[in-house]
Amino acid sequence: ATKPYVSGEIISHDFYRYGYFETRMRITRGAGTVSAFFLFARPGGRETWNEIDMEFTGRDPRRIELVYHVAGDAALQVLELPFD
After folding, report:
1. Most buried among 39, 53, 58, 77, using CB within 10 Å?
2. For residues 68 and 53, is the Cβ–Cβ distance under 8 A?
3. How far apart are CA 79 and CA 61, in angstroms?
């Protein structure tokens, strides 16, 4: 049986050099799902793409994947959390 895909996104055309961002979210459990909070900016095209991702996979809710992308380079850090 096929499962429906659901997603949401908030877009702002404001540009922030620094600041504080916060979210309250409930993650979806189950293999094949990802719940994420991310910020990105592309001020001068693809070469200037900057992104910060915080992702939870539904199969392992006690683990968060933190990724940042800066001008084509990326780094990943995975943290095991003491809660789910």
Report:
1. 53
2. yes
3. 11
Strand partners, 21: none
Nearest Cα to 54, choosing from 33, 78, 73, 71? Answer: 78
Whole-number pLDDT of residue 8: 81
With a cut of 90, say whether residue 4 has pLDDT above it.
no
Which CA distances in Å does 65 have to 15, 34, 46, 71? 25, 11, 23, 20
Predicted pLDDT at 77: 97
Catalytic residues: 51, 55
pTM > 0.90: no
